[in-house]
Design a protein that fits this description.
30% of the residues lie in helices and 29% in strands. With 521 residues, the protein is of the alpha+beta class. Helix 4 (156-165) packs across helix 6 and helix 13 (435-448) crosses helix 15 (481-490).
Length: 521
Amino acid sequence: MRSLSELRRPGALDVRHVGVDGLLLGGHRERLVDVAFDGRRIWSFWLKRDGEPSDDGVMVRWPKPLRPFLDGFTDLTMTDPGSGAVLFSEKVQFGDGSTRIDVVNPAGRPLAIDKSLKLVETFDTRDAAHVEPLLDAIEEVLGALRAVGLDAFLAYGTALGAIRDGGLIGHDSDADLGYVSAHDHPVDVIRESFRIQRALTDMGYRVTRYSAIALKVHVEESDGLDRGLDVFGGFMRDGKLYLMGEIAIPFKRSWIYPLGTASLEGREFPVPADTDRFLTATYGPRWRTPDPAYKFTTPASTIELFNGWFRGMRTGRAGWHGYHKRTIDQAVSVSEVAREVAERHPDLATYVDIGCGRGADVAWFADRGTAAVGLDFQPYAYEPEAERRTDDPHVTFQLFNLLELRHVLAVSAWVARMPGPRAVGCVHVVERLGHRGRLNLLRAAKMMVAGTSGTLHLQFLSEKGRDNYARRTGARKALAPDVILAEVAESGGRVVELVREHVSQAADSSQVCRMTIDWNG
């Protein structure tokens, strides 16, 4: 129970209930609140924006990634981020757990909810030694961009922290750079971005692409943490600044260049010439006031414009990341497709698994002495198996995006030079692709088996039952076989075998379809 003095304190929150579902609060005034467990900030929210009004008050639900930790007890504190005033403080119990709640990752490192409602290792849990590699990488990537003719600068939260506070923002979890191209046409800006990616790759960095003009450069900190350094491209056109992440606003180039400087953790870095205008365009006129629960509100017109110009290649990536994260502890088994291929092609030299996931089929073929290539556009899934198989000459894993034509053509041509006979398997991928993605899959498979008698072996959900099979496999929705038949014909191939079967004997079980496709006719 709270003391009478606490209830009378000006600004105290009217906390009516704390439970595993969330916080039931009274009051109708909008306010920003920091939530801490045992003195460590875990999450921040705006009462009205993030809450759900009810007859009993406002229910602010715990973010989904935090809920698995809510079993035990903790000293729950809620404070005003601006003043630091304590709004509520009490020992609380969640569930039946008898130990203190510890929000950490498997390695024991503390986690907190970021602005995207993800559990991450935020900067306020890292010391100077941990982030030195990140600061080094910022300097090096800025140098690499200068080497290719671009004057880049700190952007978004990294610029905000440097300009406002002189350091990394505690509740942030990554670093951002931006640049404004000398080109004014989206196609030229895209070509430039891919040139930047090649330069960074040549320097030894692992690079993941967000969109046609936005990259993530992976940086390993001193304790092995993989920290992302985002590089957002931009350009000026018709008096507007277009900067991924996402800004589309009337602007002058002179407000960016020539660049100024700001101090970040004791180092000087470039920032836009007019920092007030730049941060106002990014965070609004109140950018000087810290807001750990800040959310970007991008106009629909800007999203539509950027989607048309630059996006499309990341569709579904977040969903697959969530699926693999949710199923990380589930045992994996060899697919029926892999077994079927092995039986029908005893002389197989190379097996290619498109959408390999965690790499079970790749490992199985490798253990049989067959070269196996695992392709997926979510490296999070296959990285553990790739690390285990580092010294296995039969195993190769490769980032592969069916929505990016560069990947489809380059990777498929690379596979086509591998020893034959070759066969391609693809299990529960086509259900999550649109027409363009499925045609790219068929094009890729056709290239990969070219010059051999190899075939493509597909398996997909053709009828969704009530057995949770769609969720277990990540398939989500059923796909009519007639759709694939038409697209195979469009690709110049033919279906030489089609089998439909239920996944179990239950009356309401799901049905899968398996097809064998070739282009040798």
